[in-house]
Amino acid sequence: MLRPTHTVAVLAVAGLAAAGCAQAPSAAQNYPSSTVRIITPFAAGGISDTTARVASQCLEKDLGGTFIVENKDGGGGAVGMTEVAQAKPDGSTLSVVSVSTAALVPLVTEGAKYEGASFEPISGVTLAPSVLVVKNDSPHRTAQDLLAAAKSENGGFTVAMPGSRGIFSLTTNAITNAGGPKFTNVPFESNDKSVAAVLGGNSDSAYLSTSPNLLEQLRSGQLRALATGAPQRLDFLPDVPTFAELGFRDLPDSTVNVSLVAPRGLDDKIEQRLADAMQKCLKDPHTADVLGKEFVRQDNPGPAVMREEFATSEASWRKAVGR
């Protein structure tokens, strides 16, 4: 039998242990306890890379710790996103990536070892609607002019675009399937290279995402916008009709929707800390200065909103590719 003095000692030790457990910070409270990698599945310089670097600065500022951007390009994004999907869901590996790279690429890429459900969406960052452009001295002054010219060329009309089997080719193919002209899609590595093909006279047009650089080229008169894949006319391109206005409704989603994601299974509290930090980031004037005020989201695109957008977009793409 324990003596009273021993009982008191045991109870005291137990009380200290309990107090220690109560005061021990959780993994979420300690986050980040180590360096966090933000993988972007493309080479430096693109929209995902630029957005990732802004996000890393914001997260360091708000959460402390070290957030580093790693470029892991290859396979149209599949190489980098496979690494993210297979990482431990402890918050030490994140990605800033378009929803299409996370959810569409595995639908059209043989051997992709992930799917849209492999990720936990944390926060939307930017939305870049698609736009069809021509060189300013092109004879095609309107979208109707371009569509008529493309119809007469019976597949010879070229459209430069980033990527060979992504959201832009899905849209041009869907236009053809809906009774529009047949196009020759010409894939390039980026927006900038697609634009260069048009400006150099090597492509009749380009279908790509809007961006600060592209808006400057439109405003300076180098390019002319003829149509957009957005659901409605864009505030920053009010004179440009949508494809729906031109008679092509129910096209696949072609907006570049860039978001912060983590491997599936991330702790809810870590997810919320990251989401809260990103909400502050989206309201920071520096973010708009770097990414373009037209594109930075201000609609509180947290985890619930982004899960809905992932699901809606993926359903659109599955329908388009017959999956």
UniProtKB/TrEMBL annotation:
The keyword Signal applies. Residues 1-24 form the signal peptide. Keywords: Signal. InterPro entries: BUG, Bug_dom1. The keyword Signal applies. Pfam families: TctC. Gene3D superfamilies: Bordetella uptake gene, domain 1, Periplasmic binding protein-like II. PANTHER family: BLR1237 PROTEIN, TRICARBOXYLATE-BINDING PROTEIN. Belongs to the UPF0065 (bug) family. This is Tripartite tricarboxylate transporter substrate binding protein.
